[in-house]
Input
Amino acid sequence: MDNAACKAVSIRSFWAIKTLLKHGNNSSICKLIWTYARMMSTKIYIWVGLLMKHVVVIGAGIGGLSAAAKLSGGPTKVTLLERATSLGGKLRAIETPIGPADIGPTVVTMPDILEEIFRACGAELHDHLTMTPLPVLARHFWDDGTMLDLTTHRDQNYAAIGGLFGNQAADEFMRFDAFSKQLFECFEQSVIRASSMSPIKLAQAMIGQPSLLTRLLPNQSLAGLLLRGFKEPRLRQLFGRYATYVGGIPQHAPAILALIWHAEAKGVFRIEGGMHQIATSLTRLLETRRVDIQTGEDVTRIRQTKDGRFEITSNNRLINADGIVFNGDPRALEEGLLDEDQPRLFKPNATTPRSLSAIVHGFSATARGVSLSHHNVFFSNIPGEEFQALDQQKTPKSANLYLCASDHEDGQGDVTKSRFEIIRNAPAMSHLARDEERQTWNRLTLQRLGQFGLSFDQEPTAESITMPQDLARDFPASQGAIYGRSPHGMMASFRRPVARCKIPGLYLCGGGIHPGAGVPMAAQSGFHAAEAAQKDLDLT
Output
């Protein structure tokens, strides 16, 4: 814009602002001043800030980060409060001699959702992160020496399964693969990416596909579906493990979770440097978008005032807000965080029963004895024992062990040093973990991997373990459950809270909110919460 045009816009905008100040409302004034400020001078931003509506995002997990991204860069003041010293929530890491090792989520599917977060910040993901598809989705090991790689190519999977387990098993896999795809395509828009879920939406999605209905109902569990679909017990064990992706066990989780296979078959991606780099990159971008990021903030009370605004008590001071996006376990809101005179937000079954927790090892070492892929699963030699123990709220000694070798890429040969994350399923609990418990689980994990021939030149120590009790401490009111509410039962998804709640101006996101647990799902919930806030508070 040349000087003459700029001067003309300045004069017109000045008189428009003067008129609005006399006759308009704060929202319309703010929007016009925001446009004017972006054209003319960033110094006006200070003035705009006095008129902007203020939204506070409490919690900087992937849900909170995506909500802040969606709200940023426009005529809204955004403050992001995080209890920890860095952002990311469960996207966290532990320091090792060769760099930070992930001790949180490790799998990226549905990458377009991550890309959308970066675009909300006015950026492209590929300019900030290196995300590459993995040729092997996961490598699976059994005691008898059987090793199975699954890939994105169904014909390769057919051949691999047929070669190991016979033609009947391969044919059964192809039928399961087709069913999983049918499920995913049926429910992707109506459930997975939708802002809420209801029996009506579910029924509408299934109209014209009666075969789905007969295989999912009545009260069909994932274990039941797999028992009918596979004669090979090792394939039932493999695909039954998908229930744990959302904190459940296959005997009680609904059969609809079979769609997780297709989500993976569409592509699993690796983030160079580790999953925690997602949070690191988004932190930098949000800072450039003028999001006020405050770490070490212990929010202890949320109160709605008579005028519909909010008072947030954090570190013994008050923060005023027009709206709140809460990214945390929804149980916290009813366990003392909300003011006593606020209405009860949820029915008890919206947040209970609790999902699974985990025992997590994070370390760096050189692996020996086994050819590892990026994602590896070492299966229990007593398949039913793990889930029976978990069902009884006990930590199983005989368990499937998941190992992420984050610096391993298939086809690149041996890696001298790598960062590793090992995950063992465990029940949610909140009592303090004794030192001997950590030592016991560290010893049992290494012994079990040793039975497959896997060892490390520098074994992880008990101090490198994250226990369910640690997760309960770090994520208030979670009881250590890392997936929110349990996914058990056909009605579990309908009972999960959604973005809007009974208190106008308070919005919810995270793994405990629809559409549920997992990086893409939690990110999606952050978008839903931000979009609801923008609409209700007239922020766009």
Observations:
- The mean pLDDT is 90.
- The chain is about 40% helix and 15% strand.
